[in-house]
Specification:
nine-stranded mixed β-sheet; homodimer; eight-stranded parallel β-sheet; TIM Barrel; Lyase, Ornithine Decarboxylase, Chain A, domain 1; alpha/beta
């Protein structure tokens, strides 16, 4: 079974193709902005999901305070497009990065994150190049064991290091509290807050993160902003997390069934070079909307292996199907453009402008 | 510990960066060509690994008969660069693909693969557009349960369908025999061969595949060519398969340690958007040459999580390390360019010209 739109996509663009429904994109943007507004927390969406200044500007037009990027290459694309309030939520290290950060800071209001003294020692180079102070937030580990200092005392020490540097401004704290662990995160933050206040410092930004965390936006007492990313498209992981329904999934991969070599199996023309091997802890590699009982069990680079044993309806070679990916951010990262639709109409092509920026 | 070359790469390009050693690339090309020559089997390297016409031409200059591609977008880049003997080892379906295949066949000698009648029914459109017959090989499943017919009888039936079509030429068989299963693959092929000969057909091409299979090149009696891909760069998977040593791994990801928030852990600036989540069945996500006891245990999109509990030497924030990826093909697929070096000298930038061609 191939939908009329899928037939059109296959005819005009070929498969595999990434297709975004702009009605859903706009609805997702509005809903999350409303949730942040209701919680009294600013929205600073993470653009790592879409990597498009066009979509970032839709988010800002809907009320977002600014944006979050994960690397300089993303921020450069966004600043070139005129976006001027950018948080890079990452430890930036090295002279090459300081030169680029300095150039960015000369044209946009940049904030960067740090969890160590080596990073802080390097940042003044960027500030000096730009001719003005650079805002720095301290990243705190609140349970994920990713980046982030492990104790409030370390957070306070880094805040003081930043504040002691003429070319830097202590801007606040960046956290990623998740369930379980809210009580612990609150305790961490409260202690860090008291610590910096004891030294006359005030965090202007207290930033929480994550689309799965949207149900808890504003829950951290003292939070000033949230940085969700995936919500603009959503994916199977967000549905599993209970923060989106299938109708909120705005990006589908359209793929063609290219082989049915056995009765219980088939091959899609979307493999790990389209959908990535990132399962995000889910079983199978995406949901096929036309055949929800079919399982994408594994990948070769350009083959998606279908197990059809549980399927009552089985696709034929040539059928075009729609797949909701497990983790949409890493899928979009591999493609130069996506096709935009509204309902059953194709409305254009959107470049993934900040893709391919390794750093 | 940062090597002088790593310091140069970080200074001139930043991290993460993909760096290929051209001395090793040329040595890998020569060694595999010699192995094919010694086995009396033509070499038709799969360019999905490097996606570069520059490197494809080095492979051809060393003696390769032609190249293998996995999709039209790759073949278009290669044909535009003047390469004229191209096998697309894939079921191509749909009018959009037939239009592009026809345009390709008008300027290069194309061969395509099929495992079903639907694909065969579509291919004459491409042949007619190009004004000349199109060569088609029948893909046989020899144990991988990927694409490929499951029985010699089906292979013979498809060969006859192809031969019966005025605009197509039956060109032979494509197989992917692996261990264990050689005896079975030989039996499959022998029976298919006898079957087509009984109908007056002769396979000009009998193609085997895979870099891990290089140790068996020529083992299939009747094989005429082999299509290895990964050998040009090699990776941790090839070392594990026993077909390459660490010194044969020509591509390294250079990454910076950006966080050491705990004594037993650290963060690299290379995550799933650089190294992919494709483990290829190995433990951990790559070998760090400077810290082989360190484990890259998991990823966020731009974070590689280091477990240092087994490491005697532990990197500092700011150190630049070299990583041999588990599966190099999917890593190269995400980047627009790689840095070329010879020993300790940077010699230039190589565009990954056929990257970003989803289809």
């Amino acid at each position: 079974m191939t939908t009329p739109l899928a037939a059109k996509i296959a005819r005009d663009y070929g498969t595999p193709a990434a297709v975004i429904d702009m009605d859903r994109v706009e609805r997702n943007i509005a809903r999350v902005q409303a949730a942040c507004d209701a919680a009294g927390v600013a929205n600073r969406p993470h653009i790592k999901t879409h990597k498009s200044p066009v979509l970032a500007k839709l988010q800002i037009a809907a009320g977002a305070k600014g944006i979050t990027c994960q690397k300089l290459g993303e921020a450069e694309v966004m600043a070139d497009a005129g976006i001027d309030d950018i948080l890079i939520s990452y430890n930036l290290v090295g002279d090459e990065k300081m030169a680029r950060l300095g150039a960015l800071q000369a044209k946009a209001n940049m904030t960067v994150a740090t969890d160590n003294s080596t990073v802080i020692a390097g940042l003044p180079k960027a500030a000096l190049l730009s001719g003005r102070p650079l805002s720095v937030v301290v990243e705190c580990d609140t349970g994920r064991k990713r980046a982030g200092v492990e104790t409030p005392a370390e957070a306070v020490a880094l805040a003081r290091e930043i504040a002691a540097c003429r070319d830097l401004r202590f801007a606040g704290f960046m956290l990623y509290p998740t369930e379980p662990g809210w009580t612990e995160a609150q305790r961490f933050f409260d202690e860090a807050l008291a610590g910096v206040r004891a030294h006359g410092l005030e965090p202007g930004i207290v930033s929480t993160g994550g689309t799965p965390n949207l149900k808890n936006v504003g829950k951290l007492r003292g939070a000033t902003e949230h940085r969700p990313g995936t919500y603009i498209y959503n994916d199977r992981m967000q549905v599993a997390a209970g923060v989106a329904g299938w109708d909120d999934c705005a990006l589908n991969i359209y793929a063609t069934v290219v082989s049915r070599a056995g009765p219980d199996r088939g091959i899609l023309d979307a493999g790990s070079k389209t959908l990535t091997s990132d399962t995000s802890g889910l079983e199978g590699h995406g949901l096929i909307l036309e055949h929800p009982e079919a399982r994408i069990v594994r990948f070769a680079e350009e083959h998606g292996f279908l197990d059809l044993t549980r399927s009552n309806t089985r696709p034929d070679v040539g059928d075009v199907v729609r797949i909701v990916p497990n983790h949409v951010c890493v899928v979009v990262n591999m493609m130069d453009e996506v096709v935009m639709v509204r309902g059953d109409e194709i409305v254009g092509i959107l470049p993934v402008a900040a893709r391919g920026k390794l750093r």
